[in-house]
Write a structure and sequence with these properties.
The complex is a heterotetramer of chains A (228), B (221), C (189) and D (142). Chain A is mainly α and 228 residues long. Helices cover 75% and strands 0% of the residues of chain A. In chain D, a hairpin with a 4-residue loop joins strand 2 and strand 3. Chain D has a single domain, classed as Beta Barrel (OB fold (Dihydrolipoamide Acetyltransferase, E2P)).
């Protein structure tokens, strides 16, 4: 039954997301590199065009993992687990990107690569939780138990996502608050910079969708091989 | 919930009769505190500064060991199925096992505090607030630990996996608990420590509720 | 309907243990599950109990279930009396635990670690009678029992037939012929 | 069955709401403002703290030979003189939001680590910016 729905190749949507994302990536980089310098930070502010989309997609990916982990626990269909796995993996990559670009950005602006302030601490915890997610998956052999245990981490670990996102608002931190504030809808950014940021966000989202679909397919093929 | 209490008391009885498990937890715990005191001493200031961290590392490890114990005899004797076949929801099994651990962890915390007071110069007059911190912290830790210990109960190598899984999830609990303890040792006013307690209570409630809801889902089948 | 399996299949890793099996059981029925070692009898019983989930298919139950594994599982640090009392408390029932122990010829205050395998089997039967489930799932209940124990088992099964349903896995065809209304033969998949 | 999950989710949301609105952040703050510090000076005696505020205009003195940076940290209400040993970070300038780690001694705040805090507002220079944008830093912090 399941076998019929899993094809050997990525479907049209996967190709479209990936193709479009990779095609627009250079354009996004061009926009980022041609965006005007910031009045305070000069050209350093351009790291934002990687840092912000990376962090957003990381949060989004972990949310998708949370949702599909819940779905898996209640429906017991391995397909949900594969999406959760794929999303967590891609999310970890994006979150890693956000952490690395953040550190590169912090050194010249704040003066340090790392400091234990609320946003950075909560993000580090978040990162550790999802690294744990994969350590766990690697350690359990029984596929059903592996999926259940992973789903539990995907659900319990998600609590750190809103905490991390809101930490700059709730607690006085060194990290600046959101420039595009989802809770109030305020935007603290010049239009030409906002354009470049939103365009990169779109590119990252396309790449995320494409990679998650591709990764879930690979996971499905692996599972089929394991069961065959 | 009477069933949960009964289960906790029965498990206590089993552990007391089995002895080996409890003794290993206690021995581990004592040796760890002694070694750390020896390594960090003999000056008073560094010992006192390190005390909250050491205390919590020891408690975290002891709690992890205990959560494994909570299901170990059940698995060795093959009786876990009997518990799961009791009609109705399975939450009471979770609460019973958690209660069992808390009944051991609370005296253990008190003991740990007394040992730390002797070895690390912790202020004895702060006993009550420190014990409250220990209780809140161990509750948060044990709620997640119980959930995972149950999930992994039938798995080989669970002793290795459990800490791996647990530590990343309970970092916020341990962090707040260490900060609260450190605040008390430093002599901060209670009003300032209280907000760490509130934070601990929030984590306790969230983890306890989520674990209790997820436990039956992962245990069946 | 006490128990209904609809086209269930179960796979462990790469191996299918059961394929496309359908089965139904009513109150008052005793069904014997036959088949060589490794044919999936225990797996099927655990699926019926709800301790395992089928890879495919559906399982429906209409009553309280107890599963008697082979060998029976008891806490070795408890006495028979303590064990039965805890079981009664967890299942929320009342029963004459002392009478049950006397009937099966078992000591009250001996730790179960000191019980022989035959005594544990008897204790398992006493526990079943005491808790009185609607669906009895027994894995090789006849093993380790002596002649008198076997008589007790037959009587227990007759009592279970009044109002409850029984599925027992066994290698003992004589026993199956003696107590079962139907048999279900499993082959090696 | 469903009620159980509903109650559970409500409890979790309630706990989180308590965390957000219950003012639990008091101890989680990364830095204190000078006025908070001066109010409870006794409490922070001999303890390392982080102070955050704006570098007061016209108070920066940098001794290149001795690597001593002196300036006055202000939150608009209270002011604290700061002495930091080391080169200032690239973005350090007058009117900038900064966080200094250190402790009080000999009448000045002795900084051991100087961090520059920038706002979430991004503007190209030609658009022109107002000091209010930077001021927001401090206002937000309260």
């Amino acid at each position: 039954m399941l076998k019929a729905t899993v094809s050997d190749r990525p479907d049209l949507f996967t190709w479209a997301f990936l193709g479009l994302g990779l095609l627009l990536l250079p354009l996004g980089l061009y926009l980022a590199l041609s965006a005007p310098p910031d009045v305070n930070q000069g050209y350093l502010a351009r790291i934002m065009y990687l840092h912000v989309p990376g962090a957003w997609l990381g949060y989004l990916a972990f949310f998708v993992t949370f949702l599909y982990s819940l779905l898996y626990l209640f429906r017991q269909d391995p397909r949900y687990d594969r999406v959760a796995l794929a999303s967590a993996e891609i999310g970890l990559v994006f979150m890693g990107l956000a952490l690395v670009t953040g550190m590169l950005w912090a050194r010249p602006t704040w003066g340090v690569y790392w400091t234990w302030e609320p946003r950075l601490t909560t993000t580090a915890i978040l990162f550790a939780v999802y690294v744990g997610y994969f350590l766990l998956r690697g350690a359990i052999e029984d596929p059903e138990l592996r999926r259940k245990a992973a789903a539990a981490v995907g659900i319990l670990g998600f609590i750190n996502v809103p905490i991390s996102y809101m930490s700059v608002k709730w607690w006085r931190s060194l990290h600046q608050t959101q420039s595009i504030d989802l809770t109030t809808g305020k935007i603290h950014m010049a239009p030409e910079m906002l354009q470049a940021l939103l365009f990169n966000l779109l590119v990252f989202t396309l790449l995320y969708l494409g990679f998650v679909r591709l990764r879930a397919l690979v996971a499905a093929l692996e599972a089929r091989k394991e069961e065959a | 919930m009477r069933r949960a209490l009964l289960l906790a008391l029965r498990d206590l009885r089993l552990e007391v009769r089995d002895r080996a498990g409890l003794l290993s937890v206690l021995a581990f715990f004592g040796v760890m505190l002694f070694i750390m005191a020896l390594a960090l001493g003999p000056e008073e200031a560094p010992l006192r500064r390190a005390a909250p961290g050491v205390l919590w590392v020891a408690l975290a490890f002891a709690s992890t060991l205990l959560s494994t114990r909570a299901f170990a005899l059940e698995v060795e004797d093959g009786t876990l199925d009997d518990l799961l076949l009791v009609p109705g929801g399975k939450e009471w099994v979770y609460f019973g096992k958690l209660l069992f651990q808390m009944l051991l962890l609370l005296p253990l915390s008190a003991l740990a505090f007394l040992m730390a007071a002797g070895l690390f110069y912790l202020p004895l007059e702060k006993a009550l607030p420190i014990l409250l911190t220990l209780a809140l912290g161990t509750l948060g830790y044990a709620s997640v630990a119980t959930f995972y210990a149950g999930l992994l109960a039938r798995l080989r190598g669970r002793e290795v996996l459990l800490p791996l899984l647990l530590f990343s999830l309970v970092v916020p609990v341990v962090l707040s608990a260490v900060r609260a303890t450190a605040g008390l040792v430093e002599g901060l006013p209670l009003s300032e420590v209280a907000s760490w307690w509130q934070l601990l209570a929030v984590f306790d409630v969230v983890y306890l509720t989520a674990s209790a809801l997820l436990f039956p889902v992962v245990m069946e089948g | 309907m006490l128990l209904r399996l609809e086209a269930i299949s179960k796979r462990f890793g790469r191996d299918w243990v059961l394929r496309d099996l359908s089965f139904a059981l009513d109150r008052g029925e005793v069904v014997a599950l036959l088949g060589p070692n490794g044919s999936g009898k225990t797996t099927l019983l655990r699926l019926m109990a709800g301790l395992l989930k089928p890879t495919r298919g559906r399982v429906e139950r209409g009553g309280r279930v107890l599963f008697l594994p082979n060998p029976p599982a008891f806490h070795r640090h408890l006495t028979a009396r303590e064990h039965l009392l805890y079981d009664l408390a967890f299942h929320g029932g009342r029963g004459d635990w002392r009478g049950a122990l006397v009937r099966f010829g078992l000591p009250e205050n001996l730790p179960l670690a000191a019980f022989s395998s035959g005594m544990k089997k008897r204790l398992a039967l006493a526990r079943l009678i005491l808790l009185g489930p609607d669906l009895w799932l027994l894995d090789e209940p006849e093993t380790a029992l002596d002649g008198e124990g076997r008589e007790l088992l037959l009587k227990v099964l007759q009592e279970a037939r009044q109002g409850a349903g029984v599925v027992l896995a066994t290698h003992d065809r004589a026993l199956a012929a003696q107590v079962a209304d139907r048999t279900l033969e499993l082959g090696v998949a | 069955m469903k009620a159980k999950y509903l109650v559970g989710v409500l409890v979790i949301l309630g706990a989180l709401a308590y965390m957000i609105f219950g003012g639990l952040g008091r101890n989680l703050v990364y830095f204190l403002t000078p006025s908070e510090y001066l109010q409870d000076q006794a409490k922070y005696q001999n303890r390392p703290v982080r102070l955050g505020g704006l570098v007061k205009e016209g108070t920066v003195q940098y001794d290149k030979d001795r690597l001593e940076l002196r300036f006055v940290l202000t939150d608009g209400v209270a002011e604290v003189p700061v002495l930091h040993r080391g080169t200032p970070p690239g973005m350090f300038k007058e009117g900038q939001g900064v966080v200094v780690e250190g402790r009080f001694g000999e009448g000045v705040f002795q900084g051991s680590n100087l961090l520059v805090k920038h706002s979430e507002t991004y503007q190209p220079p030609k658009e022109g910016w107002t000091p209010e944008d930077v001021r927001k830093l401090i206002e937000e912090a309260k």
